[in-house]
Amino acid sequence: MPQNQLIQGANQELESLLDKFSKEKDKEVMHKIVPMISKARVLMQAQFPKEFSADKLKGLKPGQKLELGKDAKPLPAILKNNQGGRYFGVYTAKEQIPKENNFPMMLDMTFIDCCRMALRMGMDGIVVNAFTQNITFKKPAVEAFVNDFSPKGKQIKLTLAQFHEVTRRSIELKFLPKFLFEGGKEYFDEICEQKEDLLFNIYNDPYLKAKDIKCPYSKDEFSVMDLNLTEDLMIARLDLPTANIKPGLCIRIYITYVISRDEISYFTIEKEVTGENRKLGRVYSDGKHEIIDDAPEDGAEMQYIMDKLS
Questions:
Q1: Strand, helix or coil at 272?
Q2: DSSP-based three-state secondary structure for 19
Q3: Phi, psi (deg, nearest 5) at residue 151
Q4: Which of 130, 188, 240, 263 has the largest count of CB atoms under 10 Å?
Q5: Is the pTM of this model over 0.90?
Q6: Counts of helices then strands in the chain (DSSP H, E)
């Protein structure tokens, strides 16, 4: 492998942030890590392809790049956790790799390409610097890296109304459920504790990144109510702004947590695509979204959802 910018320490700032997060678990630090690692090149241990001939190693100098040919496919090293999960291990510098390295190849790749490969090969996620900071990005996070940071094709221009609709749909049916399924009880509690402040910040965040587009919602338009309905069931009701409520978007969201099963569920009350009725929807941990039924009357929604959980 050539002595490229990775080996020259281009990832030193990233390593410093990874080290800080591993010790403090500060989410603000992770917010800095995500865009930085998405642009980084990393190293991955690998085995030679099965069809590889050892003769190609003759005369190769230490650190020299080895050309395998376009059809040769190295076999990346896989890390396994105690639950049987399978992860790619990637490293921000060769100093992060243990000296007792038993793998003859070192792949120099972009982090995003590692994410794509992990998804293609059915990995459960990626571990960064497994023997030092040991930062794990599980499959939903890996999917988000690919979706959010892969090079985009021709940019599609949206009208202001379309931007509001697309942004809101993404939050309600993709980002927010992924946030909760990934974070579990910790993120459920975070919504219950921070209530309207957190919900407004989630909706406002895309507008902070957009140029010259102001968030059309205020904090007063959100409402969060949390209840312990039984000894085993907690529920949060999220009432959302009526502005920009297009067909298929959420009027209200119910998040449930069953204590005995350590299980999050995510239900939606949606504006019907055609007509004036409301629909009851559900988003599952794999990201699947479906319409279950017509939504009941406001006062009967919680009981209806409780029945769906039993």
A1: coil
A2: helix
A3: -55, 135
A4: 240
A5: no
A6: 7, 13
Residue with token string 């990934």:
182
Token digits of residue 182: 């990934």
* Alpha carbons 86 and 70: distance in angstroms, whole number: 26
Bridge partners (DSSP) listed for residue 47: 75
Single-letter code of the amino acid located at 152: K
Are 218 and 240 in contact by the 8 Å Cβ rule? The answer is no
Coil, helix or strand at residue 283: strand
CA distance 299 to 194: 25
CA dist 192 and 189 (Å) reads 5
Averaged pLDDT, groups of 10, the chain, 310 residues long: 45 90 91 91 80 51 51 75 88 85 79 91 92 93 88 67 90 92 92 94 89 90 93 95 86 95 95 77 91 87 87
The tokens for 197 are 């402040």
Residue with tokens 């001939």: 53
Q: Which tokens go with 235?
A: 């529920």
**CA gap 94, 129 in Å, rounded:** 10
